[in-house]
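Worked problem 6 (solution included).
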Amino acid sequence: MPGTEPKRPAPLTRRMALGLGAAGAVGIGAGLLLRPTGPAATPLPDTVDMADMTWLEVRAALEAGWRTVILPSGGIEQNGPHMVLSKHDHIVRSAARRIAQDLGRTLVAPVVSFVPQGGWEPPTNNMAFPGTIGIARAAYEALLEGIVRSLKSAGFQAICLIADHGESQAPQSAVASRLHAAWRASGVRVLHVGSFYAAASEQEAWLKARGETPASIGFHAGLADTSELMAAHPAGVDLSRLGGRRGGALAALGASGDPSRASAELGEAILPLRIAAAEAEIRAALPARS
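Solution. The predicted structure is:
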């Protein structure tokens, strides 16, 4: 809430020995690869990122009740002269980690970097800027569905989709609704966590209460998301590249508002507003997480 100190995640101290289940078999092509039983117990590393775990560690986590997973979506797009193309990826990855830590017994899947960005011929929206990589909505939906089906196949029972990009919201919601309806009877739940993106309005209100205006806040690569990236990935921001430009002078460079007013401290104050909104939605939708 406005005026409160930002909540910082507690250090992870989850290294523990978790027992493994019986051996299974995994089909590969026309043959079978027998799954080894491994040692009597497998320790979990101090991370919630699935990509940094071995498959044995993921299986151990599942068997210990870590059945909730967050699937974050970012985007590779222009973000003005002062921010890297991967802004969305870094922000949503950082947020997903904090959400997973707060929820407990939750892992984070790798970030989906490729999302709808506009048309190609002629280039529209973000596709008008070199470096932006966009895919069709149908391709994005198919990509999300394949990942979600993989997570379900692994044994996850609550799959939470969180996107940091505007054009990802509708297709992500469609995939989540379709799969949730198909699997609900089996106890598998798929959630479009739309409040994470929608809570940008709370950030705007928070900033206005502290003297900022719509002109200084901007709507893309502006004050809010520049501050968020400075908190999540400081190396991705170089304010000196603004060259004193702001507002209309930044429009042709793919930015708006007054990003020169951004700071990591501001990012640490406003990003928790979106994190809290996402956590509240997940807890309300998945009260009996397993």
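Discussion: Residues 46-285 form a domain with the Rossmann fold fold (CATH 3.40.50.10310).
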